[in-house]
Amino acid sequence: MSSNFFQLVRNEQTKLYSQVATWIMLGILVVVVLGFALIVRTADGFVTNYDDATWKQDLQQENQDLAEYDATGTQILINNYRIENDLKPEGTTAWDFLYQSNFMTSVLSLLTIIVAGGIIANEFRWGTIKLLLIRPASRTKIFFAKYTSVLLFALTALIVLFIFSWLFGMLFFGLGGDGVMLQVKDGEVVETSVWVRIAQDYGLQLVKLVVWATFAFMISAALRNGALAIGTAIFLMFVGSSVVPFISDKAFGKYVLFSNLDLTQFTTGYKLIEDLTLTFSVVTIIVYYLIFLVIGWILFTKRDVAGH
Amino acid sequence: MAEPAMQLIGLKKQIGSKLIVKGLDFDIRPGEVFGFLGPNGAGKTTTIRMMVGLIRISEGDVRIQGKSIKSDFKGAIGHVGAIVENPELYGFMSGYKNLLVFSRMIPGITRDRIDEVVKLVGLEKTINQKVKRYSLGMRQRLGIAQALLHRPSILILDEPTNGLDPSGIREIRHYIRKLAEEENVAVIVSSHLLSEMELMCDRIGILKNGELISIQEVHSTDGDVPEEMVKIDCAAAQIETAKQLLQEQFGIAAVDNNDQLLFPISRDQMPPIIKALAVADIEMYGVAVERKTLEDKFLHVIGENVIE
């Protein structure tokens, strides 16, 4: 029974990696990481090497410059903390680069959405769904095998992102530093291990990834249209959060998925809607997530597979 | 008589308020080739899709080896191999990989079995090529191979000779007969081509507007009905003599049609007639027997102009 499910997942992986498009997507991810590394390496200001003797004055100068336009002032707080605690900035290291690469999870989300949006709809487009569903495996099992396969793809792509970020980070910036990062939380500067920050920021980005991939998967399963699934999921992922300011004062505002999905609002303390709490947001996200999954599952298992 | 391989019990399909399949009741016997004939839109494909669980049954049931496709899908479908409509397979994978993927969905299919099936359909040379490079005939054969992997006792082929060239058609016909006769597989074939069906089927069910209007045995074994039309080609000058002879000795009223004598007769009466004509020195250039075609039967059953 469970070995049957394992075989179904294995089949999905076989099919996924037999397609050139999958390899192209992973290739694009590597190219994007490389591009980012080159930009960081060459751009001014990203890699500032501070002199041992004068770094404190440099930071004070930086603060004066920043005070004019940096409204949030996190960098000022961090610079002050460095001066007070005698922590000289190291410049970018491989660890920093790996951490900074977390914004590339949006590329990862894009790729995962493409896979999720296609994995069921393509079977319908190819006509192979008719061969897939007339085997002694329930539609429910096939549905979840495909879903598992999407998550496995996301995990694989994440590992690729990690490995290449670290590799290019090593290559361009070298290992170094003590792996301690400074972070502003509720107006206080705290020291955190780079690993904690990586786990935290990647983790929070992955929540978004999983939700939108599940959304694309639902549309793919329910409407059997890959382009529609990918299009709506990408659109909502990029545009959705910009809706929040318009609904933040409405009563229903905090129940909208977009208001809750950016969990980094709880690590930085800058909340999109004042009365949101971490627990409330997590529960809301889980509810939406389950709704997506259940709608997809019901329609996939119940709808007739009729001719074109 | 043996247990039926498949039973259709009051099978109905309703979409909206429209009844597409209006209650089908018939059995398919093991080892027979059953033809499912009807014009496009008669409900053939809908019925076949209900047989394999792709479409929900509105009323009634399909029992495969006694197991209901509705309540015991896995138990029932395990006995079935099928191609529904076109043999659509994964174009980006090799023929072998396609078979491997399908073999993993049913426990107990060994690599040896895959090789055996490949050999049976004669794809040894091209099995490692990508399916997108296959001709329609090769795809059709691969489709049959995937349907046979798990040694089903029922094989369902929807329009199996669609798009094949004459030699391909003959080959498929040969496989189908062989499977039915040697492996006792019940084969259900659908088509709108009468001549095709006549050559490979044992029985033919005619479907019209969602109703089974007749089931015909193709090779009638009862010899007393004069089923065959005999055509004798003889010298023009002797036509009248021959006609007279037939009338006097056998009581047959032959029709003169462009120097050919046409008359209906049962098979066992033929040798004495030919002998008598030869003894009477009638110069015969040819004796041909034409079975009354199914087309005649079907047009009679259905009415004119409904079969394409």
TrEMBL record, chain A:
<feature type="transmembrane region" description="Helical">
    <location>
        <begin position="227"/>
        <end position="247"/>
    </location>
</feature>
<feature type="transmembrane region" description="Helical">
    <location>
        <begin position="143"/>
        <end position="168"/>
    </location>
</feature>
<keyword id="KW-0472">Membrane</keyword>
<protein>
    <submittedName>
        <fullName>ABC-2 type transport system permease protein</fullName>
    </submittedName>
</protein>
<keyword id="KW-0812">Transmembrane</keyword>
<keyword id="KW-1133">Transmembrane helix</keyword>
<dbReference type="GO" id="GO:0140359">
    <property type="term" value="F:ABC-type transporter activity"/>
</dbReference>
<feature type="transmembrane region" description="Helical">
    <location>
        <begin position="20"/>
        <end position="40"/>
    </location>
</feature>
<feature type="transmembrane region" description="Helical">
    <location>
        <begin position="278"/>
        <end position="300"/>
    </location>
</feature>
<dbReference type="Pfam" id="PF12679">
    <property type="entry name" value="ABC2_membrane_2"/>
</dbReference>
<feature type="transmembrane region" description="Helical">
    <location>
        <begin position="103"/>
        <end position="122"/>
    </location>
</feature>
<feature type="transmembrane region" description="Helical">
    <location>
        <begin position="202"/>
        <end position="220"/>
    </location>
</feature>
<dbReference type="GO" id="GO:0005886">
    <property type="term" value="C:plasma membrane"/>
</dbReference>
Automatic annotation (TrEMBL), chain B:
<comment type="similarity">
    <text>Belongs to the ABC transporter superfamily.</text>
</comment>
<dbReference type="InterPro" id="IPR003593">
    <property type="entry name" value="AAA+_ATPase"/>
</dbReference>
<feature type="domain" description="ABC transporter">
    <location>
        <begin position="6"/>
        <end position="234"/>
    </location>
</feature>
<keyword id="KW-0067">ATP-binding</keyword>
<dbReference type="InterPro" id="IPR003439">
    <property type="entry name" value="ABC_transporter-like_ATP-bd"/>
</dbReference>
<dbReference type="Pfam" id="PF00005">
    <property type="entry name" value="ABC_tran"/>
</dbReference>
<dbReference type="InterPro" id="IPR027417">
    <property type="entry name" value="P-loop_NTPase"/>
</dbReference>
<dbReference type="GO" id="GO:0005524">
    <property type="term" value="F:ATP binding"/>
</dbReference>
<protein>
    <submittedName>
        <fullName>ABC-2 type transport system ATP-binding protein</fullName>
    </submittedName>
</protein>
<dbReference type="GO" id="GO:0016887">
    <property type="term" value="F:ATP hydrolysis activity"/>
</dbReference>
<keyword id="KW-0547">Nucleotide-binding</keyword>
<dbReference type="InterPro" id="IPR017871">
    <property type="entry name" value="ABC_transporter-like_CS"/>
</dbReference>
<keyword id="KW-0813">Transport</keyword>
